[in-house]
Amino acid sequence: MNLYSNKQRWKIFLLVVATVIVGITLWYSNHIADGIRNEERQKVKLWSEAIKRRAELVNFTKILFDELKTEERKKADMLANAYQIISDPTYESDLTFITQYLWTNTTIPVLFCDASNNVLDHVNLPEGRGADKRYTDSLFAAIRSKGNDPIELPEISQKIYYDDSRLFTQLQGTMDDLIHSFISETVINAASVPVLVVDSALTTVYQRGSIDSAEIATPALLRSKLAKMAQENQPIVLMLAGQQKQLIYFEDSVTLKQLEMFPIVQLILVGVFLFIAYLIFSTFRKAEQNQVWVGMAKETAHQLGTPLSSLMAWSAYLETEGVSSAILVELNKDIDRLNTITDRFSKIGSVPELSLCNIEEVMHGAFDYLRPRLSNKVSLRVDIQTENKEVYLNQPLFGWVLENLLKNAVDAMDAEGKIVGKVHSIEGRLLIDISDTGKGIPKNKWTTVFEPGYTTKKRGWGLGLSLVKRIINEYHGGKIYVTQSEPDMGTTFRIELRQGQA
User: Fold this and answer.
1) Can you give the pTM of this predicted structure?
2) Structure confidence by residue, pLDDT tens digits, 157-214
3) Residue 384 falls within a domain, yes or no?
4) Is 80 a residue whose pLDDT tops 80?
5) pLDDT digits (tens, 9 = 90+) for 326-362
6) CA 20 to 30 Å from 232, out of 54, 92, 93, 150?
7) d(Cα 497, Cα 429) in Å, to the nearest integer?
8) Residue 247, Cβ neighbours under 10 Å: how many?
9) Is residue 369 domain-resident?
């Protein structure tokens, strides 16, 4: 069973499932957001149409008011003519109808004054205001500004002043209020649409709604804001009667913009959640792996301890029995080797002690140990290209690293080829390159080869390079990676260590 292949298949399967779930979630959320977005756009459309209709209604109302004001003005002029006729009647004049017309006046303010403009009598003034000197003076000024000259009655030294009718004045005020209310309600709208009401020169802002003053604080900012709003929606042109041409600029509501950003924000949140979940599970997985590594190593060291002690006793016994010294030398070499292996396994999981070592001696030690145990078709060579050969290592563990790399190289070459261990240094880092002339590693597997379970052999657990990486990264604070590999041309593994530092 290839553990790595199964793991990769499970990863791909789970990734596909997660992608489908995320895709369905985002599609459904986006579907809901689109529905609300369309509703918001419909609101804005209805609002803009309502503005145009109300503008037409205001203009129509203005026309009606103008006609009423014209009629009221005619009444005032007729009233003035009536007073004029009474003040200077001819012999044939029929004053009956004129007098009756004067007495039926209930809307046009009239003041009867003496030569000094003291009010003697009045008609259609607000109650109690005829005797108010301040009020009558302001009324005289208003009458003069409208061009309504007084009617002189020299025979009795009196004057008759008249003003526009109360209905005329009320109509004017009502129309002004209607226009002001229309603009205010346009800005404070039910659709919560940001609005700017400006003049035709785009320099004066009459009203604004849902827009920060800082956004239009300068003419340049105002022009920029208007240009941006015009890109979203065509401005509404207002031609209100009696008013200058105005333009209503508006943009999508804040709610609509938030809805447009919702899928993106949701995707980011889902991505962050998945990334955090991956980090958490990856940490748990690594912790579990560490426990397995440590437990397996400690148990292996423990299991090796018992037969090793027995072998050491048998070696001493055979020596007393006069067994050939050559046999005992080889036996003791294997016992020493088992001691080294036991020591290596016992150090897994604990903080190893690093000591200052000569890298040349360490390299030669590892290469010399394997040389007699390999085929004659395998060439081993050490190439030292640095003067500073001192580096802090845990020699038993680092020797294990070199042995694993060398054995993997031999397997990749099918026990025939060349292996070179080159040592050089760059900017305080010691670089150790182990190169072979084997089958090579595909570039997409350069990092995968260090994962537990990865192997290209029919037999094996795929733990060697994973152990190598753990020893270099965690115990020596260094790095190991594939620096070069080509099919049928060989592979180079590089180890980086901080030179002369513990």
Assistant:
1) 0.46
2) 777 787 776 666 766 677 677 666 766 666 565 456 788 888 888 888 877 877 888 8
3) yes
4) no
5) 888 878 878 887 877 777 677 666 667 888 999 999 9
6) 54
7) 6
8) 18
9) yes
| Residue for token pair 């208007």 | 226
Find the DSSP H helices in 321-427: 325-347, 359-370, 395-412
Number of structural domains, the chain?
1
194 closest CA partner among 216, 172, 175, 220: 216
Sheet hosting strand 151-153, strand order edge to edge: 119-123, 110-114, 158-162, 151-153
432, 359 in Cβ contact below 8 A? yes
User: Does residue 374 carry a pLDDT above 80?
Assistant: yes
Q: Which long-range contacts (CB under 8 A, 24 or more apart) does 32-39 make?
A: 33/259, 33/260, 33/262, 33/263, 36/255, 36/259, 37/256, 37/259, 37/260
Q: How many residues does the chain have?
A: 502
Alpha-carbon distance of 69 to 49, in angstroms, equals: 30
Rounded to whole angstroms, the Cα distance separating 220 from 23 reads 43
Note whether residue 152 is domain-resident. no
Whether residue 64 is contained in a domain is answered as no
Q: Are 437 and 417 in contact (CB under 8 A)?
A: yes
Q: Give me the numbers of helices (H) and strands (E) for the chain, helices first please.
A: 11, 15
